[in-house]
């Protein structure tokens, strides 16, 4: 007698639940995604005891047909795709048809739903896999799904749950991700009868302010880049608003929150020399890519994706973000309205190299310069400077130097304080980079070529990437099945460990299609050169010298922070100063 048999359907669904619904937050995510797929404009979530006792999701979407109700809770039954081509182009969040069946196998589920053309609603329940008959019910429109007593019939799974507050915070995070991904949809969240988030339909920046925080969203840089079948949009933290942890990093690929190594790496790279080493970038970014260029069906929970051309995606994301972060001040301007800033900021220095698209450009440089001299002269006569001309430079005009360290300047918005050394360091650094970028990386032949053992993969990569390696200054030959010979290295980096460098370069070329290791190492070197070359503190500058530095900053990319990620300047708006002196205007 044979020993292999088919597993009962309930057990199959419970096994699937182990993957798809590993905790209440996962069930919540699936339910909310279903509501979005149904075209809901408003989604209300009500949780009890961290979601274990109850998850209720109420939406105003299209509803489910009466005859479809038993299928909705059946495994591999979906209304969203029907062919392999559909799967490869899936534009909906769901398509595997297993979420409701999995939840129904490990909880008590009740669905009440009403399509617009129905005279009343219909209800079905599914308890531990046992599906009820469809019965009439009352509901205005849309769908309400109640999930109670998660894992009541799978005690082993229940043991893996954490405390109520931990499970709740996971649910809150799942809610936040989905809410961020659809600012035009209204969301609300309640836990144990207490009302939490309440989000009206709004634009992306307003939604990010509510979910991630004003301090992030207010000054965040707007990203908007599109290429062939790929686009990146959203908000990225200005370097001064980065976080001590990775908790504010949201990447959505085609509307779905994912953790992706390729895009994540590109984002970190884009922040490489504007970020203090123990800080993390914060962002809410939407990568939209032709669905046929990305596989979302990698993981049951769809939290990972695979790109067909990961090298191209890496390049695109890196350059799009780099451009957004680098915009020189004179092209973008600074926001002079701080109405969005929270009250409490009145005394804290607001580092605000905001890159909003407001127009504050220098339209009349000549007029601006004569104004600058007027102010300089006025300053010397110790009289109040004339009112600011309307087309003033972003960082304004120098007033004085403080303790040999800071430049005080007056701009349209109020007082600007510049850290002389930090600012100059960035200017020197960007200058060095530009000088080098325009040339090919010079190569330095080694007196004694270095033989190194290599993996088969490294050997292949060295062969295939020969031309690119040469453009980077390397001369590498394959001298045996597991051996590479390094004959020349990039001249600027000749002092570094050549084998280690080549290994990292080959590794990156394989993973991301191109290597930035060299550029990074080179930039590290330039950065320390710049630090030594920059104006030291305690050097006294004349007003024209200070103004020259300010103008240079406005022209320089990434001028908002020094190479170590420290801010180079802060803005004290007039309103904040007035508040400080309790002066109503
Ligand atoms: N809130 C909802 N509104 C309308 N239809 C829904 C809703 N939730 C589920 N459905 C229907 O039930 C089906 C099964 O849902 P699910 O098990 O999550 O699979 P999938 O989302 O992968 O299709 C969906 O294809 C959809 O037709
Ligand atoms: Mg679904």
Outline of this structure?
With 585 residues, the chain is α+β, with helices and mostly antiparallel strands. The chain has 20 helices and 23 strands. The chain starts with 8 loop residues before the first helix and ends in a 5-residue tail after the last helix.
Structural summary, described in words:
Helix content is 36%, strand content 22%. The chain is built from 20 helices and 23 strands. The chain is flat. It binds adenosine-5'-diphosphate and magnesium ion. Adenosine-5'-diphosphate (ADP) binds next to helix 2 and helix 5. Adenosine-5'-diphosphate binds at residues 30, 34-35, 38, 59, 61-64, 72, 78-80, 94-101, 143.
Give the SSE layout:
Elements: H1 9-20, H2 24-37, E1 42-48, E2 54-59, H3 69-72, H4 84-89, H5 99-106, E3 108-114, E4 121-127, E5 130-131, E6 135-137, E7 142-148, H6 155-159, H7 164-181, E8 186-191, E9 194-199, H8 204-211, H9 214-217, E10 221-227, E11 230-236, E12 249-253, E13 256-257, H10 261-270, E14 283-289, E15 294-295, E16 306-307, H11 310-326, H12 329-332, H13 365-380, E17 397-402, E18 406-411, E19 414-419, H14 420-437, E20 443-453, H15 456-464, H16 466-471, E21 475-480, E22 483-490, H17 498-512, H18 517-533, H19 543-555, E23 569-573, H20 574-580
Parallel strand pairs: 1-8, 12-14
Antiparallel strand pairs: 1-2, 2-7, 3-4, 3-7, 4-5, 4-6, 8-9, 10-11, 11-14, 12-13, 15-16, 17-18, 18-19, 19-23, 20-22, 21-22
Bound molecules: adenosine-5'-diphosphate and magnesium ion.
Residues 30, 33-34, 94, 99 line the site of magnesium ion.
């Amino acid at each position: 007698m044979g020993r292999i048999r088919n597993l009962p359907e309930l057990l199959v669904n419970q096994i699937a639940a182990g993957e798809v619904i590993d905790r209440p937050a996962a069930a919540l995510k699936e339910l909310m995604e279903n509501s979005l797929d149904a075209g809901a404009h408003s989604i209300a979530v009500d949780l009890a005891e961290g979601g274990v006792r109850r998850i209720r999701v109420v939406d105003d979407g299209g509803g489910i047909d009466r005859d479809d109700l038993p299928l909705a809770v059946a495994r591999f039954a979906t209304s969203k795709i029907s062919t392999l081509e559909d799967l490869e182009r899936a534009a909906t969040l769901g398509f595997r048809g297993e979420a409701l069946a999995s939840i129904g196998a490990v909880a008590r589920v009740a669905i009440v739903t009403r399509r617009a053309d129905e005279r009343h609603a219909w209800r079905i329940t599914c308890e531990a896999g046992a599906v009820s008959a469809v019965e009439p019910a009352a509901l205005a429109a849309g769908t309400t799904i109640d999930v109670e007593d998660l894992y009541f019939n799978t005690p082993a799974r229940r043991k893996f749950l954490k405390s109520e507050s931990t499970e709740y915070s996971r649910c809150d995070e799942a809610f936040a991700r989905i809410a961020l991904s659809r600012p035009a949809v209204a969301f609300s969240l309640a836990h144990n009868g207490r009302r939490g988030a309440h989000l009206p339909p709004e634009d992306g920046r307003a939604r990010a302010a509510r979910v991630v925080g004003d301090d992030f969203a207010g000054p965040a840089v707007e990203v908007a880049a599109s290429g062939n079948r790929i686009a990146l949009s959203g908000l990225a933290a200005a370097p001064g608003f980065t976080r001590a942890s990775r908790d504010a990093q949201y990447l959505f690929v085609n509307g779905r929150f994912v953790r992706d190594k390729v895009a994540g790496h590109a984002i970190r790279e884009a922040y490489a020399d504007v970020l203090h080493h123990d800080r993390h970038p914060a962002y809410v970014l939407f990568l939209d890519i032709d669905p046929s260029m990305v596989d979302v069906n990698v993981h049951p929970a769809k939290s990972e994706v695979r790109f067909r051309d990961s090298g191209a995606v890496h390049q695109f994301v890196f350059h799009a973000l780099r451009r957004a972060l680098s915009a020189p001040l004179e092209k973008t301007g600074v926001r002079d309205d701080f109405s969005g800033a929270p009250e409490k900021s009145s005394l804290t220095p607001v580092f605000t190299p905001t890159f909003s698209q407001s127009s504050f450009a220098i339209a009349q440089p000549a007029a601006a310069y004569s104004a600058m001299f007027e102010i300089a002269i006025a300053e010397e006569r110790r009289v109040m400077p004339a009112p600011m001309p309307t087309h003033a430079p972003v960082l304004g005009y120098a007033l004085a130097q403080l303790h040999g360290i800071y430049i005080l300047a007056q701009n349209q918005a109020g007082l600007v304080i510049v850290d002389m050394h930090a600012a100059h360091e960035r200017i020197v650094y960007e200058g060095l980079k530009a000088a080098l970028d325009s040339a090919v990386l010079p190569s330095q032949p080694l007196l004694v070529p270095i033989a190194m053992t290599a993996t088969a993969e490294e050997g292949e990569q060295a062969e295939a990437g020969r031309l690119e390696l040469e453009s980077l200054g390397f001369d590498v030959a394959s001298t045996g099945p597991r051996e590479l010979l390094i004959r020349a290295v990039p001249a600027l980096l000749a002092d570094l460990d050549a084998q280690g460098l080549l290994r990292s370069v080959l590794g990156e070329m394989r993973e991301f299609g191109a290597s930035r290791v060299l550029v990074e190492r080179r930039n590290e070197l330039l950065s320390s050169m710049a630090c030594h070359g920059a104006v030291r503190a305690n050097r006294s500058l004349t007003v024209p010298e200070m103004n020259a530095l300010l103008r240079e900053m406005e022209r320089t990319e990434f001028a908002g922070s020094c190479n170590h990620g420290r801010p180079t300047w802060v803005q004290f708006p007039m309103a904040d100063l007035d508040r400080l002196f309790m002066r109503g205007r």
